[in-house]
Design brief:
The chain is of the alpha+beta class. Helix content is 31%, strand content 39%.
Length: 134
């Protein structure tokens, strides 16, 4: 059962890459919303200039428009992925759907998350933090 992967690179920054991956099954010719699986991906790096709050806020913003988001990190960035997920989960901003690891040239952790019960409240607090710093 071969899968076709179509990647669209949306943006590149030194600290994260956001991409959309669409998986289509060749055996099913119906083009319904349930057949295609799009998920934006936030790749976290070890860059010290981006904090836990940066990636937490980025995840919350993506979940405003997306049903789920993948958060991933390679090698030494895995601790940032775990810390970001733990922080957002403790605030009930996200719900963890799936956790998987990969190994190519480096170890990778990928966590798929969706909105939690307190997502809207977190977005409000983000806006309040933004207005107090301006």
């Amino acid at each position: 059962m071969p899968l076709l992967y179509k990647r669209l690179l949306i943006g590149i920054n030194n600290n994260y890459i956001i991409d959309t991956t669409e998986n289509n099954n060749n055996n099913n010719n119906n083009n319904t919303a349930s057949d295609s699986n799009e998920c934006k991906k936030i790749k976290i790096s070890t860059d010290k200039s981006k904090t836990l709050f940066y990636f937490s806020d980025l995840t919350a913003r993506f979940l405003e428009t997306e049903p789920s988001v993948d958060i991933s990190g390679l090698g030494e960035a895995i601790y940032k992925v775990v810390t970001t997920i733990d922080y957002l989960k403790s605030k009930q901003v996200i719900v963890v759907n799936k956790i998987h690891t990969g190994l190519s040239s480096n170890i990778e952790l990928v966590v798929n998350v969706s909105k939690g019960p307190s997502h809207a409240e977190y977005l409000k607090s983000m806006e309040e933090r933004k207005t107090t710093h301006e």
